[in-house]
UniProtKB/TrEMBL annotation:
<dbReference type="InterPro" id="IPR011110">
    <property type="entry name" value="Reg_prop"/>
</dbReference>
<protein>
    <submittedName>
        <fullName>Two-component regulator propeller domain-containing protein</fullName>
    </submittedName>
</protein>
<dbReference type="InterPro" id="IPR015943">
    <property type="entry name" value="WD40/YVTN_repeat-like_dom_sf"/>
</dbReference>
<dbReference type="Pfam" id="PF07494">
    <property type="entry name" value="Reg_prop"/>
</dbReference>
Length: 137
């Protein structure tokens, strides 16, 4: 998997005139990226089957919750950045988490669905603040 960023102007130019940078596993980019989201602080967050990573424009860092907190699972299948600086996480095993100001809150759908809740494929927050999750059961 490779990531690319481009800076373009309003004018049409040949592709070779664009400024672009690519990041690969050799540059520290994680493998098996499932989703991308950018929070209001400028970080680009990457969900993977092996955890959560953030990118500051220069380097990649695996996210490790503060002491006493933990990710529900390493398999993260969806991300949604909120306008107030938070980040929703959807997991492969039916849980969600919300990360804001260094605090990670976990929520589970297992009590709401018969048996295994399934993979949280998408999380979305509406304009009125209602949070929706598309779960594959």
């Amino acid at each position: 998997m490779a990531m690319f960023a481009s800076v373009a102007s309003a004018q049409t130019r040949p592709f070779l005139q664009f400024q672009h940078t690519g990041w690969t596993i050799q540059n520290g980019a994680p493998s098996s990226i499932t989703r991308l989201a950018q929070t209001t602080d400028g970080y680009l967050w990457l969900s993977t089957v092996n955890g959560l990573f953030r990118f500051d424009g220069v380097s990649f860092e695996e996210y490790r919750p503060p002491h006493g907190q933990q990710l529900a699972h390493t398999g993260i299948t969806s991300l949604y950045a909120t306008s107030d600086g938070g980040l929703w996480l959807g997991y492969t095993l039916g849980d969600t988490g919300f990360l804001k100001n260094g605090v990670l809150t976990l929520q589970s759908f297992k009590g709401h669905v018969q048996g295994h809740a399934g993979t949280v494929n998408y999380v979305y927050v509406t304009h009125d603040g209602t949070t929706w999750a598309a779960v594959e059961v």
